[in-house]
Amino acid sequence: MFLYDTINNVNIYLLNKILKQNIKPRLTNNVPRFAGLVSLCKGCVHIQLKQLIEEKIRGIISRKNREEQASIKLALDLVKAGDDDEYACGKYERVSGQLPDDISSGMLYKDIVHIAWPSFVELILTQLTSMVDMMMVGKLGPWAITSVGLSTQPKFLLMTMFMAMNVGATALVARYKGAGEQGKANLVLRQALLLTFFLSLVSSFIGYIFSEQLIRFMGAADAETLAGGTIYLKIQMLGFVVMALTTTITAALRGVGDSRTAMLYNLVANVVNVIFNYALIYGHFGFPRMEVAGASLATVIGQCVAFILALAVILRGRRYLHLRLNDGFIPHLEAIRNIFYIGIPAMIEQLLMRAGMIAYSKIVASLGTIAFATHQVCLSIHSLSFMNGQAFAVSSTSLMGQSLGKKRPDMAQAYCRRTRRLGMTISIVMGVVFLLFGKDIIALYTDDITVIEEGAKIMMLIAIIQPFQSSQFILAGALRGAGDTRATAIISFITVVLVRPGLAMLGVYVLNLDLMGAWLAFLVDQIIRSFLILMRFNSGKWKAIKVT
Question: Which of 41, 60, 91, 517 has its CA 20 to 30 A from that of 340?
């Protein structure tokens, strides 16, 4: 009897370990199998063993049910999935304001804010860090501001390829999340990281080797500015791959609506950036005084911290997206093709935008160092206002993709219309702030009287731009979430490549309006782009786009 009880006690111990280590992760698709296991054990093991099995299975099922209930975070999760009926859920209707039964506007606004607020905080803090960078660099003189400013467009141009692929990754991850296909979402994450690694590696080599030529091409007016811009861009290229991989992880997380995680690791990175700015630009805490080079190195250090934290998040496997290194990074042709299907038009759009912006920037640079320094300060402040539109664009992209993945275009349009309303309301408030306190904000950057006076005039235009900018950011994000990147590329070509540089040349060289002429061109560009994107969204043609 003693031997019999000992054997059963050992069996209970071993089974307990097996249940903990092996059965729990596999429970979802194997509940009938465990019921059979209980029946099988009924007549051949100690009654205590049977009770243990039943208790463990009941506990695991109970926890699984609680997890499923807790996962219902969106109003979208409460509606029934659509089907392939071409007339279902308003698939081929123009955008309307009708909501599905049992869904209220309040529920939709809650979902929108749930995704947007971490993105807003993250983007605001990132831009504030950039502004602090510019303020710290600005204390070195207008040449330093211009040096950093001249490196901006070449860097963004080199980022075009992998940023465009990130658009494809976000849209696909969101679709698979809506369709409930977690495995495919994780496959897209791995393939997107693989693409980003190789594309950013090539771009960083090009940027490093041709740094001086790129800064000279951008219009460096003197040797000091050229030298400062060149060293700044070279250091940026050393951390380019790390920065690129972080943006891909962020894009994938946003696709599933997890913007809070990206906010947290970017917040830590921004704090690190500011601390090292102070140490390396001016030579504090025993570090050498590196001036412009120190600002660039501090940014790279912050980006490395962000990458380490972001990688740790997706490796731990506690969220919807989980990077399993054992799955490998062998190219998956179908997944890559799907990413390219959305990403290539997005890349064309980004290239066109960068070409137009470089042409526009060269026109402004031709006005001289003081005018370009004023322009850079105004751009830095204006970039802060991007955060509103971009944060809500994260919501519209994710909710659009998830809604279409669930075959509910009616939910997609309901989400996006309300996202636009929220974004435009905030943009109007920001416009009023810029209108009333523009001169004071400019004075935070520099004590140069000419820059402050001219900048205050530009701030009036930036205030007017706000609602148009917010609308086009949010609806363009929605169209990209639907995979409608061809339409956004065409609109960008018309406005950024043709309208903005063309009108800037007219204002600067023909009407002799100097910097004000360039910014008036910017205002007209935003108004036209906002109108064209709204027309495309209201057409409802995005509902029929296939991305897989």
Answer: 91
